[in-house]
Amino acid sequence: MNIERHFIKTLSLQIRIVSVLIVLILSRAIFPQPVMATNEVLSAQLGLPVESRNSGFHQYDLTYRMDLPWHSSDRVFTDLRFTGGMLADDYDRGMVFSVGPTLGINMRKTRMVFLIGSSVTALGVSRFETRNLGGKLQFTSHVGVGVHITDHVGMMLGVQHMSNASLHKPNPGLNMFSIRLCRLL
């Protein structure tokens, strides 16, 4: 049984690391010539739980996004996101910080954008009244779809999964729906 648990922990951590590496490798393969980018975005997010076992949890955060230098057009892009905010349940709250890359595709004709990314996340509090998230070091994976309302303002809907990749016990994970308002700086 111990060998199985160790294998699952190792596999979970490897999947997280590989997902970050895939985003970076794909962005480098798609964009072999570095091009300096100038897009910077500030956004605000509200996250609500997907599952009833996490009812009461919510997340508020601000994200600063800057383009990474690998892109060949405005259609496909990579960026680095720095996020800070609050994660709370009905009784407790704590700070949440994350940093990680994102791969995005702009669909200019429909003014839509699709995103997928992963980040390393640090929690100020990992033990809440209703749930023990198992440790302050977490990993967050996210996917989303957004629409450009104007040339400088957008709105996104997404889903994110945060867990400690079995580095700590327990590892319940936390799945959230998110809505994000974005402003191009």
**SSE order:** HEEEEEEEE
Task: Report low-confidence residues grouped into runs of 5 or more.
Answer: 31-37
How would you describe the shape?
globular
CATH topology: Porin
Beginning-to-end CA distance, first to last residue:
52 Å
Q: Strand fraction band?
A: over 45%
The secondary-structure class comes to alpha+beta
Indicate the CATH architecture. Beta Barrel
Question: Helical amount among residues, as a percent range?
Answer: 10-25%
> How is the biggest beta sheet arranged?
8 strands, antiparallel, barrel
Q: What's the helix count? A: 1
Note the quaternary state here: single chain
Task: Please give the domain count.
Answer: 1
Averaged pLDDT, please? 83
Rg from alpha-carbon coordinates? 17 Å
CATH class: Mainly Beta
State the total count of DSSP E strands. Answer: 8
Strand order in the sheet with the most strands: 1-2-3-4-5-6-7-8
